[in-house]
Amino acid sequence: MADNGDDDSAYRIKEGDYVVLKRGDIYKAVQIQPKKKVIFEKQWFFLDNAVGNLYRTTFEIVSGALKLQKPKDSGSSTDAKQGGIDNRNIVDDGKSQKLTRDDIEGLKEQGLKPQEIIQELIKNSSTFGDKTEYAQDKYIKKKKKKYENTVTILKPSCRILAMMYHGREPGKVCHLRYDTLAQMLTLANIHAGSKVLVFETCAGLVLGAVMERMGGYGSVIQMYPGGEPVRAGVENFGFPTHFHDTLHDFPICRVNALLAGTLDTTAKEPTAGGDLKQPDAAAGEEQKQPGAEQQGSPEEQSMETNSAADGVQDLEREEKEKLREAKAQEKKVKMEEKRKKLAAAAALLEGRNADGLVIASRFHPCPVLMGLLKFLSPSRPFVVYSQYKEPLIECYTKLKEQGGAVNIRLTDTWLRHYQVLPNRTHPLLLMSGGGGYILSGMTVAVDRSKPSGSRRAEEPAPKRQKLTDTEG
């Protein structure tokens, strides 16, 4: 029975958890913090009352606080209404609704619930009774979306976060759609216990998806451009601490040095000691000069004033020196930690036995792919995503010329949502125009002792022999 309690606690919202707020098709990732105001869809509220409830619970927003939504009645006055035959005689001239905006605001100030406001809108609509049942349902659904103050709290997952980024900020994730991301994880054979290389500029979404699929077992090496790796999307997943122990990072600018064997992982510390000693010597000289003036000065009053001023200056110098030493020590510790991380990642890469490679970046993928393929073992998959097909065509051609890869495929993804309702099942009118392109393949061992030029020359040799035989 204890196991059941532990399982139940895993599905309950706790303080400090990362969650996703949902209203309709709009998502937002936040962290549960006490007395922290959250703004979502032009409304502000606190998430304190959500702690202890199950995920996927729907709350009502009342005066900035969350309250559990009461179960709705199975029957309502709107269900009993009969619809018209068709909508051909309905004219959308904006005059069918008798209530004005001021009247609706007045109803809100009176404390009417969203359902009651919707009922008033229906009563004061001159064309609602003439609409078909389907049109009436669509009208009610539209008004609920506008006036109901509800929010659903979800547990973060790869699919939910991918939908959130693609819906709100698709440029941050290179317009990567969740179905395309699922194909990438499948083609790359991501599983627990594997060693995967990831190069992405999708705000950490692809990296987090790989870590979620691995479940905290194995090694993930993030190859990053620039000074520091970007992991904003990884934080939204809310992984446990042991998940981050499997994550390593390596700068992409040092890949060539690692391949050539010239990578130096020793710490190159600046000579901070010499810089810190110079102010000490200058301070000592300045301290001796006032002493000499005190011995040879005839006026005692000026001597006391100078000594007091020198004492204040000495205290200021000591404080500045302590601050410099603290900063230098902190910088030294950070450099040492960075050096250790670099050495650990380099040790994992030196074996050149990675199990998979995933690339999803706004940079040109061809040089990155050719450099990172050398770290994969034979018979290992690689996947490259791009919003456009032209860079992947160049990668395809390069792989064919260079060799070392088989089963190379360049595909595009297409997705269409369907509305499934009685007597009105049809594709949705609005859909994503494209889901990007994927280049996938499998590495193989290549005999580099024989040059590629000689292999090409051997192919047409039998054909030339046949031609000479026929001529003779």
TrEMBL record:
Where in the cell does this protein reside? Nucleus
Region named Disordered = 69-92, 269-312, 448-472
Quote the protein name from its UniProt record. tRNA (adenine(58)-N(1))-methyltransferase non-catalytic subunit TRM6
**GO biological process per UniProt:** tRNA methylation
Entry-linked Pfam families: Gcd10p (PF04189)
The similarity annotation says: Belongs to the TRM6/GCD10 family.
| Principal location class | nucleus
**Summary of subunit composition and partner proteins:** Heterotetramer.
Q: Which source organism?
A: Xyrichtys novacula
UniProt keywords (A-Z) are: Nucleus, tRNA processing
Amino acid composition bias (Polar residues), ranges on this chain = 292-308
Name the domain of life this protein comes from. Answer: Eukaryota
What PANTHER family does its record include?
A: TRANSLATION INITIATION FACTOR EIF3-RELATED, TRNA (ADENINE(58)-N(1))-METHYLTRANSFERASE NON-CATALYTIC SUBUNIT TRM6
User: What role does this protein play?
Assistant: Substrate-binding subunit of tRNA (adenine-N1-)-methyltransferase, which catalyzes the formation of N1-methyladenine at position 58 (m1A58) in initiator methionyl-tRNA.
